[in-house]
Amino acid sequence: MNVSVFQKMKDMMPSMSRSQIRIAQFIIENPSKVLNMNILELARSCESSPSTVVEFSKKLGFSGYKSFQIALAQEIALFETLKPDSDRLRRICRDFLGFVFSELKQSVELISDEVLTRASDIILKSNVVEIFAYGFDSIAGKDLFLKLKEFGFQVNFFSNPFLQSISASHLGNRGCAVAISSSHSSTDLLDAISFSKKSGASVIAIASPSSKIAEVCDILLPAYVRTEILSEGGFLTKYLQIVIVDLLILKMFEIDKDRLYEKYKHFETILSQKRRGDKGVF
Question: Residue 79's pLDDT is what?
Answer without folding.
Answer: 67
